[in-house]
From TrEMBL:
Keywords: Signal. It comes from the Bacteria. This is Secreted protein. Residues 1-26 form the signal peptide. The keyword Signal applies.
Length: 243
């Protein structure tokens, strides 16, 4: 049997250890990014194929992951004779899918800025992406094989509901809309498709935000980027995508 021993440390050393372990006030607060209001949000999901003839008509892959379907763990919904279809999500199981176990965060979204495959988006990301000069992104900002958009956190609000998700794709409709995505004047999305939608959200976010439509283009949200330190506990932290 081991004998427990109490080790008394000088108060100065204790204070130093606590200060090292805890994030600073600045880290706890994070950066206050500009808000975007009254934005149409549609719903998409891993495994969805809504237009086989369109280059961007499938969610088997994303702009950041050529094997998104496999990385995620399969259809983020229900497999039927018609393919991978979405399903209503509820708080009962944290808005997680009911027919599969995801390997990545089911709280995902896209925004219309591709900083990896869009040549202009990559060339300009050092100037327009607000966190491009911060650690750890500044170490990879010049790497043409690494995105500084993927996995970034976003706070989305609708009618008193506040939910959080990670960016895993680019769209809808446009892929280089820097004025809308990073602007400080609440610009409208340049996209004209899907009722001028400015983002797609996953089924988990659809349920968390209490969208009126399971797969429509009438729901509107407010959103802003947030740092990880600003993300509160919730089902969106059960699985965090880091790939």
């Amino acid at each position: 049997m081991r004998t427990l021993r109490t080790v008394l440390l000088p108060l100065g050393l204790v204070a130093m250890l606590v200060a090292t372990a805890l994030p600073s006030h600045a880290e706890q607060r994070g950066t206050r990014y500009p808000g975007h209001t009254d934005i149409v949000a549609t719903t998409f999901w891993v495994g969805e194929i809504f237009d086989p003839s369109a280059e961007d008509g499938s969610q088997m892959f994303s702009t950041y992951d050529d094997h998104w379907f496999e990385s995620y763990g399969g259809c983020d919904g229900v497999v039927t004779a018609r393919g991978c279809e979405t399903e209503r999500r509820t708080a009962r199981n944290g808005y997680f899918p009911t027919k599969m176990k995801p390997r990545e965060n089911p709280f995902y979204l896209d925004l219309p800025y591709d900083d990896l495959n869009d040549r202009a988006g990559f060339a300009q990301r050092r100037k327009v992406v607000p966190w491009a000069d911060k650690s750890p992104w500044r170490r990879i900002v010049r790497d043409p094989d690494r995105s500084i958009m993927k996995n970034r956190w976003v706070k989305i609000s609708r009618r008193g509901h506040h939910c959080y998700g990670q960016i895993q794709d680019a769209g809808p409709g446009k892929y280089h809309d820097k004025k809308y995505v990073f602007g400080t004047k609440d610009a409208r999305p340049a996209n004209k498709r899907y009722n001028r939608a400015g983002m797609d959200v996953s089924p988990a976010l659809n349920g968390c935000l209490h969208f009126s439509e399971l797969n429509g283009d009438s729901d509107r949200v407010d959103w802003r980027f947030v740092d990880y330190a600003q993300v509160p506990p919730g089902p969106w932290k059960r699985i965090i995508t880091r790939s």
